[in-house]
Write a structure and sequence with these properties.
about 80 residues
């Protein structure tokens, strides 16, 4: 395995780890209705909406659907800006 193969493998592992973390935070937000940690709760006003968008973004990657990704990004953005009643 050359140097390029090692860099590719390392990059793939980092991206896989980020994808798993994204899914875990999305499931946490969707099921519990709150964001984990100290930095995320002040940034996200609608955690369930944000979590739905986060999980839909991962699904759109597997489905290779740009329109589904656009909907997912919209839901994540709405989770940040939409005020609760």
């Amino acid at each position: 395995m050359g140097y390029g193969g090692f860099v590719f493998l390392l990059l793939a592992l980092v991206l896989l780890g980020l994808a798993i973390a994204w899914v875990v935070v999305g499931v946490h937000a969707l099921l519990l209705g709150r964001m984990p940690g100290k930095r995320l709760p002040p940034l996200v006003r609608q955690p369930r909406l944000w979590g739905t968008g986060a999980l839909l973004a991962v699904v759109s990657g597997y489905a290779r659907s740009p329109s589904l990704l656009a909907v997912a990004v919209g839901l994540v953005a709405l989770g940040h800006v939409m005020k609760s009643r």
